[in-house]
Amino acid sequence: GEVSIDRIESILTVPAKIKDADHPISLPPEQVKGQITARNLNYTYPGAKAQALQNVNFQVSPGETVAIVGSIGAGKSTLANALPRLLDIEPGQLFLDGNDITQIRLQDLRGAIAYVPQDSFLFSTTIKNNIRYGDPLSEQTEVEYCAKQAQIHPEILNFPQQYETIVGERGITLSGGQRQRTALARALLVDAPVLILDDALSSVDNQTATDILKNLSSGTQRKTVIFISHQLSAAATADRIFVMDQGQIVQSGTHTQLVQQAGLYQSLWNQHQLEEILQ
Question: Which one of 126, 157, 188, 201 has the minimum C-beta count within 10 Å?
Answer without folding.
Answer: 157
